[in-house]
Amino acid sequence: MFTGAIVGFALLVRESRTLRKLEYARFRELFTLLSDGIIVMDPNRSIVYTNPAAIRMTGWDLKDTVPYCRYCQERNIGSGEQRCLLAQDRHRSYFESQLPTRVGGWVNVGMSRTFLMPRNDSKKRDMVITIRDVTRELQEEELRLTRRLTHHTWEVQEDERKRLSQELHDGVSQSLYAVNLGLDHLAKRVSDTDLSQQISELKGQMRASIEEIRALSRTLYPAVLYSLGLVAALQALADTLTTSERTISYVTNMHPDTKVPPETSVHIYRIVQEAVHNALLHGRAHFVVIELIQNEDTVCLDVRDNGSGFQPKNTESVGYGLRNMQERARAVGSDFHIESKPGEGTTIHLRIPIHHNSLFLPDQ
Hints:
Elements: H1 2-33, E1 37-41, E2 47-50, H2 52-58, H3 70-74, H4 85-88, E3 94-100, E4 106-115, E5 127-133, H5 135-189, H6 193-220, H7 223-227, H8 230-241, E6 247-252, H9 262-281, E7 287-294, E8 298-305, H10 320-331, E9 336-340, E10 346-353, H11 354-357
């Protein structure tokens, strides 16, 4: 019986050791598969353990001495202080800096640390540093800030356009109109035929100037967009730009009272305005078609022209106008596609998700 107890105890010890080995293997596998880097270093900053993620990020391996991060290399320290901030400040468990890599250069990392229990009778403890590559996070944050700045710039531009439009309409246009009335009054008091002809020509030039000012005012700030909405504003744009020498055709299946969020409306309107401007000015087009078609879950915007076209090898390297359209398309949740060949005109495509912009049909 006593022998059986000993055998049973031996089996229990063996099973316990087996379980510990399995647990150790699981922990080792866990550290191996982690996407965050793990570095365990002794008080002399020599690496006693590291995982593959840390090696990929820094290139440093077992028995290497871990270099200080850029912040710790450059910071001022007092007498008796450790240069490593995480080792010196026990209340600080995380901060972001740059670690030097084995091959040269730096990697942006977020670092957190903890300490292991002392080994044997030593009071010194190994430090465990967990590192995460935050380069992508920094890039994403920079992109978010850039887009916020772009959107703020658009808002400022719209406000400035509104102010200039009002000044042109209420100031310059009214002044020219007053001059035109004065010319009318003067023409009635002049009997000289040649002088009357000159006054008549001046009046014609004045009327043309007034129309140009009004057209510029409408371009800067399309009041119809804010009063009647996007569908009506695009129709007004097509009507205004259509002349005896060119035709701007507008096709839509959207109800004139369809409500579109103001910011979305401005982006779509400015994209169409820029596309038509490019077609007429650069493409020398005589015919432009604007299509705004609402389907079940998208609004499709196409602007086609019969102009000279171009070779859009890389739309990222082209002028400000196309880049602005690309950014505005992204703001309404759409990709920006452009098709063009020399001599075959140009077409731009947008597919705007309705759910992204809360578009809806008018109340019945």
